[in-house]
Amino acid sequence: MKVHTDKSQNKGILMIAASGNQGKSFLEYPASSQFVIGVGAVDSNGKKWVYSNYGDELDFVLPGVFYESGKALNKVLRMRLEL
Fold it and tell me: How many domains does the chain have?
């Protein structure tokens, strides 16, 4: 995988990866690569999701548990993102 992240960076390809789901203070590869945007998860209250890995290399966090994503025909749609 390291070869792919290096080659992608050299070609100007943006790579995004999940930080990991162990709740540990390190990012899994490829999220830990300097050439990849590492994304962690927050819960519906904006707090770090208990299973989301975290650390100094983390670039962004996004909702990682049930949340409202929109409404259709007066029914709330729900999505679950596993980051």
Answer: 1
Strand pairing class (67-72; 75-79): antiparallel
59: left (phi over 0), alpha (psi -120 to 50) or beta: alpha
Sequential pLDDT tens for the chain (83 residues): 555 666 666 777 888 999 999 999 999 999 999 889 999 999 888 899 999 999 988 999 998 876 555 544 445 445 454 44
Q: What tokens does 39 get?
A: 């994304």
φ, ψ for residue 47, nearest 5 deg: -95, 155
Peptide bond into 63 cis (omega under 30): no
Instruction: For residue 24, give its domain range.
Output: 2-79
